[in-house]
Amino acid sequence: MKKLLSGNEGVARGAYEAGVVYAAAYPGTPSTEILENISKYKGDIIAEWAPNEKVAVESAIGASLAGGRALSAMKMVGLNVAADPFFSCAYAGVNGGFIIVDADDPGLHSSQNEQDNRHFAVAAKVAMVEPSDSQEAKDMVKTALEISEKFDTPVLFRMTTRVCHSKSLVEFKEREELAKKPYVKNFAKYSLIPAHAKKLHYVVEDRLKKLAAYSEQTSLNYIEWNDKHIGVIASGISFQYAKEVFGDTVSYLKLGFTHPLPIEKIKAFAKEVETLYVIEELDPFLEIQIKAAGIHCIGKDKIPGIEELNPDIVAKAFLGEGRSTLSYDTDKVIGRPPTLCAGCPHRGFFYVLSKKKNVMMTGDIGCYGLGGSEPLNAQDTCICMGSSISTAHGAKKVFEKYDDSMRVVAVLGDSTFFHTGMNSLLQAVYNNSKIVTVILDNRITGMTGHQDNPGSGYTLQGDKTNVTDLPLLVKALGIKYVRTVNPLHLKEVDDALEWAMSLDGPSVIITRWPCVLKKHTPEDIAEFGHYKGTCRVDTESALAVAGVQRLDVRHLFIKKRIKKSILMMYNVTAALCVHRCVRCKL
Question: Where are the beta strands (DSSP E) in 462-535?
Answer without folding.
Answer: 481-485, 507-512
